[in-house]
Amino acid sequence: MIFTGSPFTHMEKWRLLLHSSQDAFTNMAIDETLLISGKPTIRLYKWKPSAISIGYFQGMKEEVNLDACKKAKVDVVRRISGGGAVFHDREGEITYSLVAPEKMLPKNILASCSKICSSIACGLGHLGLNAEFSPLNDIVAGGKKISGSAQTRRYGNVLQHGTILLDLDTNLMFSLLNVSDKKIEDKNIDKASKRVTCLREELGSVDKEEVTKALIKGFEEGFGIELVEGKTDEKEIERIDELREKYASREWNFKR
Question: What is the CATH classification number for the domain harbouring 64?
Answer without folding.
Answer: 3.30.930.10
